[in-house]
Amino acid sequence: GGSSLGEGHMELMVHRRLLHDDAFGVGEPLNETAFDHGLVVRGTHYLTYSYLATPECDFGCLHRRLGEEVMLQPIISFSKTSMSAYDWKTTFNNKWTGLKSSLPPSVHLLTLEPWTDGSLLLRLEHMFEAEETSGLSDPVTLNLQ
């Protein structure tokens, strides 16, 4: 939950644990546990300020871009292997350089995955609705060749 009780102030309540009823509506202690320990909440909060918006990228545009960056970060994982680093690098393709130019800022590569008979399934999405943000809501034409 969050509130702003005064100009320039913001209060976010991530998790509340009380061993006694505080008379603020629940009518019982708030003592959630897991594995015989009180719950611990961890996370990251992102605050965006509208003054960062520009005519080309308004607040909605900034919010979507931040969401894309946060939610689609690469996942790095590790695995035991008997292969040397050189063998791994020469056995597996670790990068893809199929695009000859960058996609327009309003176009997002949604999926690129193996399909049937050695072909690929490519899904692109336009991130903005019509008239949502200046300039970036315009239709886009791409040459897939």
UniProtKB/TrEMBL annotation:
Superkingdom in the source lineage: Eukaryota
Residue ranges constituting the Glycosyl hydrolases family 38 C-terminal domain according to the UniProt record: 106-144
Any one Gene Ontology molecular-function term assigned to this protein's record: carbohydrate binding
GO cellular component: a single term: lysosome
GO BP term, example: carbohydrate metabolic process
TM region positions: none
Annotated protein name in UniProt: Glycosyl hydrolases family 38 C-terminal domain-containing protein
